[in-house]
């Protein structure tokens, strides 16, 4: 599992969701948390010189650059081929899940979710990219 | 009598001899059978019956009438030639809907879909319970759903914050509304983040919108997969202020789902006009 010092980036256009995910992560002992409000800003954050994120947790549906588009960018850049990347979404249609798996998502979290579910999915993401 | 229930069909296997004792038993048991709301067809199976006393006709007719008045179908089948002739001569064949072929009734039952209101309630009810519990650390109890009549469609009930999402499908147009009194939602917000807030602000509105968003997203997936709707993703509109009046003017049906929490009551309203 990720160490509690892992640098985590949360990307979501809704402040409430960012707060919910951040609170869950803090309750799980993680302190090194950064937030971005859309896919474009998220990509800038991942690319920043001192970024060094160990985990990205991104919403799927965002007005300015979707989570799936961001994942595609991340996976086509060799620097981030093994970056654990989790998608959070209210959608659980099979076609969407399959699309995310094809692109290389590390774990897929469907809203609503509990802190325990988030933790289980983080373990899944860690194991998949270890 | 043996009773077999298979989905919307209840089969009542009648005994060898139908006498006064059977009549009493039939009248008593019929009340319980009618209480099973999911039954659409009562099938009387006369396969074992060889004797039917005239004194039992009244009980058979009475029970059949009650079933029909409750909007159910009935059919009597597997009668011997002699019994069929006996019922015909007594003039009760039509009342008991004597038919040689039970199978012809089954497709009619299975093809009958539950109403839109029944299809809509459970996905939204389940989504609300689980969303509030998992995302807002708030356990809720669903209270009895209510159908709001036209003259009751405008109410306040101290609602201070509400989120609304429009629903548009091939089958219906409508909306889903999540509405809270101020004191209830401020406590829910506190349970979510551990932050005490004394009045509604932009962050509170954002939280109400996101909860509705999650409830809608969760229910939408079920409705699309299970009922074949094509509900699209949609963003909520948030309304806030003192004693908001929620007025449903355009929709034929409004179902109110009240929920009880340790902080007080809130509600979800589902409004829709079925398309013809």
In short, what is this structure?
Chain A has 130 residues and is an alpha/beta fold. Helix content of chain A is 44%, strand content 17%. The model of chain B has no long low-confidence stretch (mean pLDDT 85).
Oligomer: heterodimer
Sketch the topology of chain B as an H/E string, one letter per element.
EEEHEEHEHHHEEEEEHHEEEE
> Which regions of chain A contain 5 or more consecutive residues with pLDDT less than 50?
none
Major beta-sheet overview of chain A = 5 strands, parallel
Strand order of the largest sheet of chain A: 2-1-3-4-5
Helix content of chain B: 25-40%
Helicity range of the residues of chain A?
40-55%
Tell me how many strands of chain A there are.
5
Number of helices of chain B: 7
Tell me about the largest β-sheet of chain B.
7 strands, antiparallel
Task: Describe this structure as you would to a colleague.
The complex is a heterodimer of chains A (130) and B (276). Chain A is of the alpha/beta class. Chain A has helices at residues 15-27, 39-47, 67-76, 94-103, 115-129, and strands at residues 8-11, 33-36, 55-59, 85-89, 107-110. In chain A, strands 2-1-3-4-5 form a five-stranded parallel sheet, sandwiched between helices. Chain A is globular and about 30 Å long. The mean pLDDT of chain A is 92. Chain B has helices spanning 20-34, 57-69, 81-90, 106-111, 116-136, 182-193, 202-227; strands at residues 2-6, 9-13, 17-18, 41-45, 51-52, 73-77, 141-142, 146-148, 154-155, 159-168, 172-181, 237-240, 246-247, 253-261, 264-274. The mean pLDDT of chain B is 85. In chain B, the strands form four sheets. In chain B, strands 7, 8, 10, 11, 12, 14 and 15 form a seven-stranded antiparallel sheet that branches. In chain B, strands 1-2-4-6 form a four-stranded mixed sheet, with helices on one face. Chain B has a two-stranded parallel sheet with strand order 3-5. Chain B is elongated. Chain B is an alpha+beta fold. The interface between A and B is medium-sized, with 19 and 25 residues.
């Amino acid at each position: 599992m990720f160490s509690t010092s892992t640098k985590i980036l949360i990307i979501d256009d809704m402040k409430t969701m960012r707060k919910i995910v951040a609170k869950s992560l803090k309750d799980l002992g993680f302190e090194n948390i950064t937030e971005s409000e859309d896919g474009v800003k998220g990509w800038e954050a991942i690319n920043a010189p001192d970024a060094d994120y160990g985990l990205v947790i991104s919403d799927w549906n965002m007005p300015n650059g979707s989570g799936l588009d961001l994942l595609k960018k991340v996976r086509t850049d060799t620097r981030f081929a093994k970056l654990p990347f989790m998608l959070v979404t209210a959608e659980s249609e099979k076609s969407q899940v399959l699309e995310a798996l094809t692109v290389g998502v590390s774990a897929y979290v469907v809203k609503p979710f509990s802190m325990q579910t988030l933790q289980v999915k983080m373990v899944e993401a860690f194991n998949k990219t270890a | 009598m043996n009773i077999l229930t298979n989905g919307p069909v209840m089969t009542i296997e009648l005994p060898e001899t139908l006498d006064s004792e059977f009549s009493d038993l039939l009248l008593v048991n019929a009340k319980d059978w009618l209480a099973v709301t999911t039954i659409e067809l009562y099938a009387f199976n006369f396969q074992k019956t060889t004797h039917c006393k005239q004194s039992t006709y009244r009980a058979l007719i009475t029970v059949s009438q009650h079933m029909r008045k409750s909007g159910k179908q009935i059919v009597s089948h597997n009668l011997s030639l002699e019994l069929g002739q006996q019922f015909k001569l007594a003039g009760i064949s039509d009342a008991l809907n004597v038919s040689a072929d039970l199978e012809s009734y089954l497709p009619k039952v299975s093809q009958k879909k539950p109403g839109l209101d029944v299809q809509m309630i459970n996905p939204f009810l389940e989504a609300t319970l689980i969303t509030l519990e998992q995302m807002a650390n708030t356990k809720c109890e669903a209270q009895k759903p209510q159908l709001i009549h036209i003259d009751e469609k405008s109410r306040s009930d101290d609602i201070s914050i509400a989120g609304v999402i429009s629903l548009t499908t091939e089958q219906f147009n409508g909306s889903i509304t999540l509405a809270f009194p101020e004191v209830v939602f401020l406590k829910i917000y506190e349970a979510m983040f551990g932050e005490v807030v004394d009045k509604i602000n932009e962050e509170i509105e954002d939280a109400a919108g996101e909860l509705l968003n999650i409830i809608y997203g969760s229910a939408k997936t079920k409705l699309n997969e299970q009922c074949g709707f094509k509900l699209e993703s949609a963003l909520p509109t948030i309304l806030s202020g003192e004693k908001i009046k929620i007025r449903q003017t355009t929709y034929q049906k409004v179902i109110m789902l009240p929920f009880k929490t340790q902080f007080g009551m809130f509600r979800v309203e589902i409004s829709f006009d079925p398309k013809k």
